[in-house]
Amino acid sequence: MAPVRTAGAIATLLSVAIVSYFLCKTTQQKSSGKKKLQRRRTGLVAAIGSTPLIRINSLSDATGCEILGKAEFLNPGGSVKDRVAVKIIEEALESGALAEGGVVTEGSAGSTAISLATVAPAYGCRCHVVIPDDAALEKAQILEALGATVERVRPVSITHRDHFVNIARRRALEASEITSTTRKESQIDANDSSQINGHSISEEKQNMQFSSECKGGFFADQFENLANFRSHYEGTGPEIWEQTGGKLDAFIAAAGTGGTVAGVSQYLKDKNSNIKCFLIDPPGSGLYNKVTRGVMYTREEAEGRRLKNPFDTITEGIGINRLTENFKMAKLDGAFRGTDMEAVEMSRYLLKNDGLFIGSSSAMNCVGAVRVAKALGPGHTIVTILCDSGMRHLSKFHNDKYLSEHGLTPSATGLEFLRPS
């Protein structure tokens, strides 16, 4: 009987060995994938993230709370969108949706486009940006200096086929079509449309042409691509948690795509459900009402008073009248409204008292931080995002003549400009 027991033991050992081999093989494959990602994050892209969390002294002293700003303007590309650009490109390369030598297209009011143009060359890719022509001029100039192809178009509703986001989607399709034709892999049939990112090529040919050397196109789709959310859930949120030692009471930020407020709020809530997370919403946006009343609605849309451009506000890149896939991931306890005048006044107040030269969305976030501080009372720790600096807002938000023409000349000496919430 002993030989039988020995044979059984040997069989068991062999089974364990085989299972261990395949488990080890799988682990090695996963590990090699991670190493590949780590090797790629060298040079410029390795410097993205791990931004400092700074105390905003003037606001903290005025409210009795610790108001902290995540200094995202210190990223290499100058904004919080650097995180998003890296995540979108890396996931696209890993999935095969984007190839080295391909073109990344995006419709953006500025910051995401600048970040994509900054990091794309590090991955061997190029960038094509479609931007509304009412965006600050210096943003287009920066994009061109970075080597991106810039296409400026008139602002129209997102439902219009020529909205800058919809045009950017078509440009990616055109780049892929040219690649397909050049390689003679397939002939596009009028009755059989190719697809990219789940969208079909329109029957109508576009005028924009890409080089025959182009290795296809990929539409970044920052509004709906959940890589946006993941960049903040995996990066910004954990950094805030670590930098505060988990000792924070509230987080607040505005939303454009919704990726930042969604990723950070969900991460913080997962760590501690008692942390309060809020939205600050600018004029012309329906998100405030979505959060507080469950209905996407804004006063500018009532009684035929809808603005010609739903985002017709001094605060660029934030505020929206639709629910994005990224924003749907947010875990929010409430929302506050902010005004253009408050954002302008806040930017000047922080420049004078703290030496912080920030952009419009950062200023609105700080308006929100004070709103939360007043709502919670003294003794609380509140975190917000300093998205970008004022350097790419010189022609509008930091232009005295432009502000005067729009009745937004700042005059406050303190925080008296903040209206009751």
TrEMBL record:
The UniProt entry's coiled-coil ranges are: none
List the cofactors.
pyridoxal 5'-phosphate
Occurrences of domain Tryptophan synthase beta chain-like PALP (ranges): 47-388
**What InterPro entries does the annotation carry?**
Cys_Synth/Cystath_Beta-Synth (IPR050214), P-phosphate_BS (IPR001216), TrpB-like_PALP (IPR001926), TrpB-like_PALP_sf (IPR036052)
Region annotated Disordered, chain positions? 178-197
Comp. bias regions, Polar residues? 188-197
Give the matching Pfam families: PALP (PF00291)
Query: What PANTHER family does the annotation carry?
Result: CYSTATHIONINE BETA-SYNTHASE
**Name the record gives this protein:** Cysteine synthase 2
